[in-house]
Design a protein that fits this description.
The protein has 18 helices and 18 strands. Helix 2 crosses helix 9, helix 7 packs parallel to helix 14 and helix 15 packs antiparallel against helix 16. A hairpin with a 2-residue loop joins strand 4 and strand 5. The strands form five sheets. Strands 1, 2, 3, 4, 5, 6, 7, 8, 15 and 16 form a ten-stranded mixed sheet that branches. Strands 9-10 form a two-stranded antiparallel sheet. A two-stranded parallel sheet has the order 11-14. The N terminus is likely disordered. By secondary structure, the chain is an alpha+beta fold. It is an enzyme of class 6 (ligase). Homodimer or monomer when oxidized or reduced, respectively.
């Protein structure tokens, strides 16, 4: 199989910024029916308050349960694998149109009791942000499940974690400003009701039974699927928080190089940003228990996807991988239909037993891709997913780290040269050992920390060559590499030396 698919005999065609955002995210605010002429029902209508009208509870934007999307018409002919390959390839764009997208999750908690906030408190929070800072509400049935403003969205994860999905932006200064603005708005509303936000990778104190349920039908289906993987499957959905960066590529060849570099270094990123050493009220023996939990569930849709390092890797090879990942759901007529591990390949020939005879659309393909969770996920852009949630300085450092390495040709080539002779066994061993050992993970004749020293220098050099004064965002990582102490190591030091072996001070230490 050639590196360049038969459908891609030249460089990928660049597309506009409207396609940068995953269309599943864009379509989340669409009316949950096939046309605007549908009957919305009593008190269910679309409106904005641009002219001064204030929203009332029970009204708002009526949407499909996000982030699923549904085509306006059903497919009349089968999708081909070429269609799926072309979908990924449509993300290619010239360097001048490359952007930086950031996403981060956080736990809401009661300042007085430190308990996780329940859905009613989340509901009040979302309504407060919408009304005070002019966000559009996203309503599912009678429940508010998110907010949207332009290309930004605020959504809820299965355990009530609050996620900001940011606008694709040109510079790291803009991305950090966006995070700052979001946290200011959320805190302004939350502090009036005694709510704080915790920047950490795993729920440090409370048990699974204490975590609130979010009334999103999509999550009912997903949790039903992941429950077959036992406690780690449940915990990975409702008790974890991560931060990720979304980056572009110019061609299939550029995508391949960036996928290989970022996957090989994902364990290093996990170590640098490790920030989840506590669970159940004390140390858990890991620096990133979040990363460990993710590694314990559904090997078919998580992990290091080693085929990326094969000579044959390209868009087509990723499509083949995604086709073989069991389906979780299909979305039809505003409803999630449990597919329980059925095959997308069968779906493509009308043999999906959940909806026999129906053929998939590209919307179904988009939805399927959102249910795959490797360390680096390929859509029409790349999602780098291996870092724990953390404090603001680390939220700004993650995109800086990856932009410096992947958006600069010299730094990217330095990484590729370094990892060229890394074996599959070495990459797998790093992924296994890093959640517990962090930068102290043995690697060849030294430690992973020694690899970090070179890689961080290349990231800084790459940012300097952008000439946008962005290397300042790497200062937090400079301290981590200099000392060899990850954020989790620092927390454990404070737990043993300053906090009297109490977990409660972490809520103050990492409160935004």
């Amino acid at each position: 199989m050639a590196l360049f698919s038969q459908t891609l005999k030249s460089e990928c065609v660049a597309i506009g910024m409207a396609n940068y955002m995953d269309s599943s995210r864009v379509k989340e605010t669409k009316v949950g029916c096939s046309s605007l002429s549908c009957n919305l029902g009593k008190n269910q209508f679309l409106h904005t308050d641009r002219a001064g009208m204030r929203y009332k509870r029970g009204h708002g934007v009526i949407v499909a349960t996000g982030p699923a999307s549904e085509a306006a018409v059903l497919a009349t002919k089968p999708l081909t694998k070429e269609d799926l390959v072309d979908y990924l390839a449509s993300g290619c764009k010239p360097k001048e149109k490359w952007r930086i997208g950031t996403e981060h999750e956080k736990f809401g908690f009661e300042l007085g009791t430190l308990r996780p906030i329940n859905y009613k408190q989340i509901e009040n929070l979302l309504y407060g942000i919408a009304e005070r800072f002019d966000w559009d509400k996203i309503i599912e049935g009678k429940y508010i499940i998110g907010l949207k403003k332009g290309k930004q969205s605020i959504s809820l994860e299965p355990g009530g974690q609050i996620e900001l999905s940011g606008t694709p932006l040109k510079t790291l200064h803009q991305t950090c400003d966006e995070v700052n603005s979001h946290l200011y708005q959320a805190k302004t509303v939350a502090e009036d009701t005694g709510i704080g936000f915790l920047g950490i990778g795993f729920q440090p104190k409370w048990r699974l039974k204490d975590i609130p349920q979010v009334p999103k039908v999509r999550y009912d289906v997903i949790q039903n699927y992941f429950h077959k993987f036992g406690l780690p499957g449940k915990e990975s959905l409702v008790m974890t928080c991560s931060v990720q960066v979304n980056l572009d590529f110019s061609s299939e060849a550029d995508m391949v190089r960036k996928m290989r570099a970022s996957l090989a270094l994902q364990p290093l990123a996990t170590a640098l940003f490790a920030n989840s050493p506590f669970s159940g009220g004390g140390p858990n023996g890991y620096l990133s228990i979040r990363s460990q939990k993710v590694d314990e569930v559904d090997k078919s849709r998580t992990g290091m996807i080693p085929f990326v390092f094969d000579d044959s890797f390209g868009f087509e090879k990723y499509v083949d991988y995604a086709l073989d990942v069991p389906m979780i759901f299909v979305y039809r007529k505003n409803k999630y239909i449990d597919c329980g591990g059925m095959s997308f390949r069968d779906f493509m020939v009308g043999k999906l037993s959940a909806i026999p005879g129906e053929l998939p659309t590209l919307n179904d393909w988009e939805n399927h891709l959102t249910t795959i969770f490797p360390e680096v996920r390929l859509k029409r852009y790349m999602e780098l997913r291996g870092a724990d949630g953390g404090p603001l300085r680390m939220l700004c450092a993650l995109p800086a780290f990856w932009v410096g390495l992947l958006y600069d040709e010299v730094s990217l080539q330095n990484v590729l040269d370094m990892i060229e002779d890394w074996t599959p066994e070495e990459r797998k061993a790093l992924r296994k050992k890093v959640p517990k050992a962090g930068l102290r993970t043995p690697f060849r004749d030294g430690l992973l920390r020694h690899v970090a020293e070179d890689v961080l220098k290349w990231a800084k050099d790459g940012l300097e060559r952008r000439q946008l004064n962005e290397s300042v965002f790497l200062d937090a990582l400079t301290e981590v590499v200099r000392t060899g102490l990850t954020p989790a190591d620092r927390l454990l030091e404070m737990y043993h030396e300053n906090w009297g072996h109490s977990i409660d001070p972490v809520f103050k230490e990492l409160c935004y």
